Amino acid sequence: MEERIKYLFRQYLNNTCTRKEFEEFFSYINEASHNELIRELIQQAYEETRPANPSLTYVDESGNLVIPEPAWEEKPSARMWSIRKKRVFAGMVAGLLVLLAGILWLVFQPSQPATDNDKPVLAKKITSRSEYKYMLLPDSTQVWLNAASTLEYPKLFAAGKREVFLTGEAYFDVKHADKIPFLIHTGNVTTSVLGTAFNIKAYPGRENIIVSVSRGRVRVHYGSKEVAILTQGQQVRVGNVNKTVIQKKLPVHEVAPWQQGNLVYDDETISDIVADLERIYDVHIRLDNEALARERISTSFRREIGIEPALQVLCNLTDTRLQLINNVYVIK
């Protein structure tokens, strides 16, 4: 779909699209008004094709986006159209152009002015419990946002700077850009890359912030101190409280197991695992024993097994029992 949209955009901007391509292109434009992925793909296509076609689409003195109507070369059969049909078609084109201008204004409207402290106004993407989202950032970096997470990012990255703020968990496939690092801030931890793929888990209240790399090279800082440089198949855990740094190797397929529907926990506290299950299954879980909350285990299971079998695994490993009381799962 992405390549098709780019092709149609080039055809339109080069004034070479057929009527069929024109109608297909505007069907995507129409869908973009309520489909975020389509809107982001169109934005990417627009940004890639605009430099080569500066005169076809422009902003006038009033700040309005001007979209010229394409001029098709009429085929012999087209010349046989009646005047009435031509007028109907012209009206349809005019309506579609108005629609295009309105939607492209929505998609490509300039970012808001900076605040008083010279920081850009940030857009925010939020997932609720048991919700997962895919998104495309202004530089074409791809992000998969896990449940109960928030990503803040500028609508347009400033020159020489790409910077986002994550709360929760996300998998990033960063678009490579020479000498323009991509920075992800998660509390006191900052992850810096040029172009790579990796996962960050940084939910509030967790014992550790975890960074795992599936491709490329990642630099991790705690405050101003560099704590790790990671390459493919490496992971670092940075303690939120005690600031401990633990680095290890792991199989690449375990970098972001949640993307494949796997829940993998390696030497994690019961309290962190329970908090994760609450987000994934959108349920409430209570631990009746503080000592149990601090206990550490390693386990894994498929997400589709459901909350009760998942909790039963925890109970079997910790010699506890599970009860459902007033829609709250209680482990005691």
Walk me through what this model shows.
With 332 residues, the chain is of the alpha+beta class. The protein has 3 domains: 2-108; 111-258, Jelly Rolls; 261-332, 3-Layer(bab) Sandwich (Phage tail protein beta-alpha-beta fold), CATH 3.55.50. It is 29% helix and 33% strand. The strands form 4 sheets. Strands 3, 4, 5, 6, 7, 8, 9, 10, 11, 12, 13, 14 and 15 form a 13-stranded mixed beta sheet that branches. A 3-stranded mixed beta sheet has the order 17-20-19. A two-stranded antiparallel ribbon has the order 1-2. α1 (2-13) packs across α2 (19-32), α1 (2-13) crosses α3 (36-49) and α5 runs antiparallel to α7. The model is unreliable at 51-99 and 105-116 (pLDDT under 50).
Provide a compact summary of the structure.
Helix content is 29%, strand content 33%. It contains 7 helices and 20 strands. The strands form 4 sheets. Strands 3, 4, 5, 6, 7, 8, 9, 10, 11, 12, 13, 14 and 15 form a 13-stranded mixed β-sheet that branches.
Key words describing this protein structure:
332 residues; alpha+beta; Phage tail protein beta-alpha-beta fold; 13-stranded mixed beta sheet; 3-stranded mixed beta sheet; 20 strands; 29% helix; 33% strand
What name does CATH use for the topology of the largest domain?
Answer: Jelly Rolls
Based on CA inertia axes, which overall geometry fits?
globular
Content-based structural category: alpha+beta
Number of strands: 20
The rounded distance between the terminal residues' Cα atoms is 51 Å
- How big a fraction of the residues is strand? 25-35%
